[in-house]
Amino acid sequence: MLSTLRISPRERLVLLAIIEAYIVTGEPVASQALARLWVDRDGMSAATIRNVMASLGDAGLLDQAHSSAGRIPTPLAFRFYVEQLGSQPGAAPRGLSSAHRAEIEDSFSGVSSAHQFLERTSQVLASISSGLGIALLAASESHALEHIHFSRLGGGRVLAVLVTTAGVVLNRVLHLPREMEMAELDAAARYLNHNFRDWSVDRIRAELDARLTAEQSEYDRLLRSVEELCSGGALQHTGDSTLFIGGVANLLSSEMDRSMLRQMLSALEEKQRLATLLRAYVDARQQTVQVVVGLEADMPDLPELSNFVLIGAPTRLGSDHSGTLAVIAPTRVEYGKTIDAVAFIAQLSDRILQLPQP
């Protein structure tokens, strides 16, 4: 929290003006530019503004490439700005008009599953923010069983096709210690589909272990066949989450150093790292939007993430908060608009997916 940061009302006024000008232009802000906007405002001449900017620089809130250049906000300044958005109504323009909200809702036309909702979310957020739009389906949800089918490939190999309740289709080739006949595979699939529809992978595995221990009957052979298939990986829980990313081209077209962006994007292509990053910052138990400026603490090998912001929120895709949506963008993102868009879409799932109210 930066609420203890001590700056004067005049310094606050100048800092917010510099941040908002930088968000719009992407260019360093000079004292003369502010002086032209503030003729005789609060007695601040160009010289006074220069002194205030120097003081803000000493406080670590402004950077200056060289002595004759204008100033740009630091990550610390953007963190202060985000706090002001939440604590000072009217401190900065807030985002979405009713027309924009209607446009966003229209963009989800035809969506009928959690999988489709999150995929569309990543595209919409990328378009709104000009950054990365990200949507994450929690691993436990993405691996809940809707239907499973086995196909015999020969040589002890079996193709398992798992359809999840979220509409995700997972294919996996299993390498088994013995050859299974097709009748045995069909019986195993029927048993799983009949008994465990809507169950999570972890819960199915635990229940199978318990039944194998308890059952010593005519079902013993069937249960052992099912267990062999599941142990072979048919219901293997990898810990992966279903992740949708949109807007990579947005970052590559930005003004930031291309080699730095390529390095960052290469790291973020490791979806598990990105999923871990989202979980670290977005608490599914809270329905509020989280805004985090500077992500380098969780990815120390990517110091350039200090110049990026994550704006994220949980979303309800079933009876619990089971998804996360977020924007990762350069710090000069339009905060009000993006925060409002994330909050609106996070609440939109109830209507789009016609979920009962909690």
| Largest sheet: spatial strand order | 7-3-10-9-8
For the secondary structure, the number of strands is 10
- Overall residue-averaged pLDDT value: 78
CATH architecture title of the largest domain: 2-Layer Sandwich
Instruction: Report on the biggest sheet.
Output: 5 strands, antiparallel
Helicity range: 40-55%
Written overview of the protein:
With 358 residues, this protein is α+β, with helices and mostly antiparallel strands. The protein folds into 3 domains: 9-87, Arc Repressor Mutant, subunit A; 98-138 and 241-352, 2-Layer Sandwich (Beta-Lactamase); 142-234, Enolase-like, N-terminal domain (Enolase-like, domain 1), CATH 3.30.390. The chain is 47% helix and 18% strand. The chain contains 14 helices and 10 strands. The protein has helices at residues 9-25, 31-37, 46-58, 75-87, 98-106, 114-129, 139-142, 182-195, 201-214, 220-234, 248-252, 258-268, 271-281, 335-352; strands spanning 62-64, 71-73, 132-137, 145-154, 157-164, 169-175, 242-246, 290-293, 308-316, 321-330. The strands form 3 sheets. A 5-stranded antiparallel β-sheet has the order 7-3-10-9-8, sandwiched between helices. The protein has a 3-stranded antiparallel β-sheet with strand order 4-5-6. Strand 9 and strand 10 form a beta hairpin. Helix 1 (9-25) packs across helix 3. The longest helix is centred in the last third of the chain and has 18 residues, at 335-352. The protein is elongated. 35% of the residues are buried.
Quick summary of this structure?
With 358 residues, this protein is α+β, with helices and mostly antiparallel strands. It contains 14 helices and ten strands.
